[in-house]
Amino acid sequence: CQVPWRIYRPGAVVGSSQTGEIDKIDGPYYLFPIVRTIRDKVPGWLPLLGVEGGKIPVVPVDYVADAMIEISHQTGHDGSTFHLIQSAQDSTGRILEILFEAAHGPGFAKKFKLPQLPRLMSRGVRKTSKLPAVKVAADQMAKALGLPAAALSYLTTPVSFDDSLTRAALKGTGISCPELQDYAQKLWIYWESHLDFPKPNDALHRKLQGKTVMVTGASSGIGLETARKFAANGARVLLVARSAETLHEAVAVIRDHGGEAHAYPCDLSDLDAIDAMADKALAAFGHIDILVNNAGRSIRRSVLESLDRFHDLERTIGLNYFGAARLIHRLLPSMVEQNRGQIINISSIAVLGNGPRFSAYLASKAALDAYSRSLASEVKHNNVDVTTVYMPLVRTPMSAPTKLYNYPPAWSIDSASDLVVNAAAKKTKRVKTALGQTAEMSYAVWPKLNDTLLSK
User: Fold this and answer.
1) H or E segment and range at residue 190
2) 117 with 54: CB under 8 angstroms?
3) Does the pTM of the predicted model rise above 0.85?
4) Nearest to 293 by CA among 207, 382, 223, 398
5) Which is nearest to 34 in space by CA: 185, 199, 144?
6) pLDDT digits over 133-168, tens only?
7) b/e per residue 90-117 (b: at least 16 CB within 10 A)
8) Is 390 noted as a catalytic residue in this protein?
9) Which position among 154, 190, 321, 361 bears the catalytic label?
10) How many CA atoms lie within 13 A of 207 on its CB side?
11) DSSP secondary-structure letter at 394?
């Protein structure tokens, strides 16, 4: 060939090492749902056993672009092939380990190497793998793992790639491939917030389509995932939180996936700001069908350690009770006027079990609980339903600082948000887990025994 040529061979391309941004699910991203499922089901302190597996030549897209542009402008490289990869490549097991760390999941106690088959035997295996029965079994295994069947080959492949020519060409340019462990968290955050969007549910869609739903505390955690699920099932969602920038990012993601969402930045500890925000929403949409009071502040400190911190009580009750009640007062008339509506207040399982060291938090949630019970009978004839969700322990940004929460069983944000969305669809009065129901009954029957047990 007389035409000058150069070959660039990127590895398994992932998102930007700077922002995590990517526009497709491919390669290592097939491992992300597996990591999420295990993270949500397995306590972080419980170590896992894994396999080392074959090498996967992961590379961030920004490095691929920078390297290709730089090398293409250099002279003397015609007829050469440049591998664009991380050097050295991580094994499948190491990549999983890095992803678990990025997702705040459990780690690996030990990884085992899979034995390499002799050449003649491996040829036999390759021939056997083409048999219909074996192919069906492989396809079923891949489906169960959420992987394409071709991706299973990474478990045993001994192949690795040499990028020494690439590194030589880039020497002195300041361009080098970062290691996955240095940017994995950016990949994870982008995937979880932009690509791992909830799927619609037919039953929920029939109930929620066309509803106007306001969700507070919607910039992260349960509130954000609840808003995304409402939007995925055809509702118009109004996201409320303090951070305008974060809200607008969440709104953009929902719209990218075909949903309708609007950002309403508001400091819910400021009663005047609540009034202004609610009036703005009513002016735009006329009424709110469903209000989810999810925003909250938690604090874990004993009363004896809080004697000179009375402001903790004031700030906590100001947001958790006064803020929620003020918003209800502002939106309730529109529900009464249209003769339908639902108010969903997020409480805590600890209100049923009277957990120690949470007096400020539980008092604020118990106040909202009592308010809700009284309100429910007042507006029943107006077809306005009042729901209380006694949320179990959930692994969220709010619970993360309390290291004690790493040990007991906890719900995932995905499961917790399901409680809220299902309560909206079914108009459930009280949502309690089995543990919450047990705690409530136990305190009702043996209050002194409960005090003794909880004091330990």
Assistant:
1) helix 180-190
2) no
3) no
4) 223
5) 144
6) 545 555 555 555 556 666 666 666 778 899 999 999
7) bbbbbbbbbbbbbbebbebeebeeeeee
8) no
9) 361
10) 17
11) B
